[in-house]
Fold this protein.
Amino acid sequence: MSRPAAVVVSGEVAAAPQVALLPSSGMGHLIPFIRLAAELASRGCGVTFITPTPVISGAEARHVADLVASSAGIRPLEFPLLPFDSSTAASTDPFFLQFEAIRRSAALLGPLLSSAAPRLSALICDVTLTSAVLPVAAAVPLPTYVLFTSSAQMLSLCVSFPQIAGASLPAILKIPGLAEDLPLRSIPQPLRDPGNLFTTQFVENGKVMVHADGIVINTWEALEPATLAALNTGKVVPGLPPVVAIGPILPEHSQSNSAGGGGDDSLAWLDGQPTGSVVYVSFGSRTALSPEQTREMAGGLESSGCRFLWVVKTKKLDKEEQEEQEEQAMEELFGDGFLRRVEGRGRVVKGWVDQGAILAHPAVGGFVSHCGWNSVTEAALRGIRVLAWPQHGDQRMNAGVMEKSGLGEWPKEWSWQGEGVLVQGEEIGRRLRGLMASAAVAAAAAKVKEETVRSKIAGGSSYSGLANLIARFADSR
Ligand code: UDP
Ligand code: G50
């Protein structure tokens, strides 16, 4: 792909904006940054891609290496972190601890940003780092935008939570400016504990969002029109900078070939399956079902009668997964004879797959998903109907947005992680059969796809959102 070296601003040729991107940790935060880097480069921006090191997962390291190798327009910049003693931190979640390690190293960013060549026009930093990074970037000085990697509804919670938070939260939360109530059971679990590290970061980030030059968000007008309007008219909190919807940030075609870690031939298997027949099953990059729930899932997929491609995770971090004794663990996990009984119509894979490419494959028609926000956006882009089974974090809120769009169904009574209630295989099979047989859901999902695709092509809302953003970068040089 050829890349223009300059952008045209009101008839004149201006120097290309130079944008630094600062992701945090976890594939759900890294992948949208990688995709944004590719979109910005393809629209003529110079991109400096900052990587806080060491990274905590093998998938993260491979993805960054692939991005840098794939595009001459993207310059890598390493950001070595200070040592961080996590033993006294108020969380054991490896991703929250990595957010904290990056936040505590933020002072080291100043010299990196001010000495970058060519001179930077703007910084886009991950939402999890906002309160630590904004003051450092302001001192450079460098205009700073936040990439919000979740929904507009989640952004509304984030910016209003500092006011709502207190010793006890009501069973139903009211977010200013939003028509719908939010049940307490749907918000990320750590937020119910005011002392949790995630809560501290979330509140600090929410408070300072008003000081950013803009909030770039991976959603789009057709998906969350009322919420975006409320955010942009000061109804959620007054004084918020422009919330610019540019989603769905598009999957990179070349991105994950080597990131697969080698050997995944799921796409070749899909080539042999009938159109729209396969249900893809995945709970994202950082969520493992319990062994008992995994066995019920196996029973559910078997009894549904559907063809399926199931990505199984048994550990939160991929490093730990590689250490496991795989062969033996698999048979034990699913119950005797499962793999033999579903042979031909079902495929189980362990490790990384190219989900963007899988959801784009014509054989795939359904998705049993934890509703990580990236997964929701990828399913919408391809019109894949979703059976939502949120597990933790922002996933219940995401499932709510997904269901409201018409893309799929969310059995709200299904438990989430830590509740210790097993969802029975028969129930999973029944809901899945119902979803795949529903003509109404198929039609609604097709409509979501059409609106989503339209938002990304020339003249569409997200296409224009990104164009306006780039014009602002150019102005600030
Ligand atoms: N993903 C992938 N292959 C995998 C697992 C995940 O390509 O085996 C991608 C997926 O397409 C998405 C991201 O990783 O872009 C995961 O983000 P999401 O927000 O869906 O969930 P999380 O992993 O953060 O819970
Ligand atoms: C992880 C998680 C819950 C959760 C998110 C996670 C989000 C929401 C956005 O990444 O991405 C967000 C995260 C952190 C923060 C502010 C906003 O400090 O378990 O909601």
Summary: The CA atoms of residues 36 and 100 lie 23 Å apart. Residues 254-263 have pLDDT under 50 and may be disordered.
